[in-house]
Each structure stands twice: as structure tokens, then as C-alpha cells.
């Protein structure tokens, strides 16, 4: 079985970005992301009621990292590494099968600038070469064309379409699963 044992979440750097650990001080930005209708349009998760709930989410993310269950980075620009503009990482891990589920969100002001693509490339590389994952998957809302395009651009292939497999806010929703193999 794969084990993710890292003393701390490593900081990753790209041409324009620094991917770093999420901090409790990022909670107001996370709250803004999770309450932004544009950002959450295709992310079917409960809306936080206040910044304190976002602090609890960050604490949970950090606790789960310490248990080897996830690796989630704050996306920041090199020009301002203190300001989180989004996040991405491996939200769920299936360690016996060397597989992890990737997810991401980004402030709308930074959409269509290649930021998620740049960050995703780095995190995929880290997942395969440092963590030693065999496969990475993504679960998206089928209406999310931007996310689908991003995944396809990075070599993901559609693995499944599940009809009404997810219950959220009184409705059954569909899911599309994309996967990428290390090979």
C-alpha cells in the first residue's frame, strides 16, 4: 500500500506561482471562494455560514494531510505569495490503489489566464513522481465545460458517467469521472 508520509506539505513553484500550505489566515479568501456563486456553480458542496467554518475546513485539510489522506495547496502568485487566489490538490486518496482525486477552485479574476493549467501540471508531476501515484482522477459536474477542457488538455480521459449518483440540496445530480495514468 502507498503511504504519503511527508514532514510538511512541500512548497511547489512554477513560472508564475507558488503553491503553499493553506493557513488559517487564508480563511477569509476560502470563505469568499466558497460563497462565490460563479466559483461554486459546478462545485456541489455546502456553502459556509461564516469565516470560522472556513477556518475549520483549513484545519481539517491540514489534519488530513498529517494523516496522509490529502495534499491540498493554496495557489498564490509569486508577486504576492501571502494572498491565496485559489486552491488545488488531492482531496481524496485511495492509497491501497495508488490513486488520488484532484480538485481545484480559483477566484474568477484569474480565470482564463492559464493559472490552473500551470498549477495542475506541477501538482500532477508531484503526484506521479514524488508521491508515486499510479493514477489521478477528477469528478466533475457534467455541465462544467471549463473543467472538462482543462482535464482533457492535461491528458485525462473520461472514465465514467454516473447518472444521478450524488444527492445535493434536494436533487440527484450526475457525475463525470476523468482519469490519468502515470504511464
Explain the overall architecture:
The protein has helices spanning 27-35, 37-40, 51-66, 115-129, 145-153; strands spanning 12-13, 17-21, 71-77, 80-94, 99-106, 135-140, 157-168, 171-181. It has 183 residues and is of the alpha+beta class. It is globular and about 40 Å long. It has an eight-stranded mixed beta sheet, with helices on both faces. The longest helix is centred in the N-terminal third of the chain and has 16 residues, at 51-66. The chain has a domain at 12-138: Gcn5-related N-acetyltransferase (GNAT) (Aminopeptidase, 3-Layer(aba) Sandwich). The chain is built from five helices and eight strands; from the N terminus they run ββαααβββαβαββ.
Give short descriptive properties of this protein.
183 residues; alpha+beta; Aminopeptidase; eight-stranded mixed beta sheet; 36% strand; globular; acyltransferase activity, transferring groups other than amino-acyl groups; transferase; Ribosomal-protein-alanine N-acetyltransferase; GNAT_dom
Query: How are helices and strands ordered from N to C?
Result: EEHHHEEEHEHEE
Query: Mind telling me the C-alpha Rg?
Result: 16 Å
Task: State the assembly state of the protein chains.
Answer: single chain
Q: Beta-strand percentage?
A: 35-45%
List the helices and strands and how they pair.
Blueprint: E1 12-13, E2 17-21, H1 27-35, H2 37-40, H3 51-66, E3 71-77, E4 80-94, E5 99-106, H4 115-129, E6 135-140, H5 145-153, E7 157-168, E8 171-181
Parallel strand pairs: 5-6
Antiparallel strand pairs: 1-2, 2-3, 3-4, 4-5, 6-8, 7-8
Amino acid at each position: 500500500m502507498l503511504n504519503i508520509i511527508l514532514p510538511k506539505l512541500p512548497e511547489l513553484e512554477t513560472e508564475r506561482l507558488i503553491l503553499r500550505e493553506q493557513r488559517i489566515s487564508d480563511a477569509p479568501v476560502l470563505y469568499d471562494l466558497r460563497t462565490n456563486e460563479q466559483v461554486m456553480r459546478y462545485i456541489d458542496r455546502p456553502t459556509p455560514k461564516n469565516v470560522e467554518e472556513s477556518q475549520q475546513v483549513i484545519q481539517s485539510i491540514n489534519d488530513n494531510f498529517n494523516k496522509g489522506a490529502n495534499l491540498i495547496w493554496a495557489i498564490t502568485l509569486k508577486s504576492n505569495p501571502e494572498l491565496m487566489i485559489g486552491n488545488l490538490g488531492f482531496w481524496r486518496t485511495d492509497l491501497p490503489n495508488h490513486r488520488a482525486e484532484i480538485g481545484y477552485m480559483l477566484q474568477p479574476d484569474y480565470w482564463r489566464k492559464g493559472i490552473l493549467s500551470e498549477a495542475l501540471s506541477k501538482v500532477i508531476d508531484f503526484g506521479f513522481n514524488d508521491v508515486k501515484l499510479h493514477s489521478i482522477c477528477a469528478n466533475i459536474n457534467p455541465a462544467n465545460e471549463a473543467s472538462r477542457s482543462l482535464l482533457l488538455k492535461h491528458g485525462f480521459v473520461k472514465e465514467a458517467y454516473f447518472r444521478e449518483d450524488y444527492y445535493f440540496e434536494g436533487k440527484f445530480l450526475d457525475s463525470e469521472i476523468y482519469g490519468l495514468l502515470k504511464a
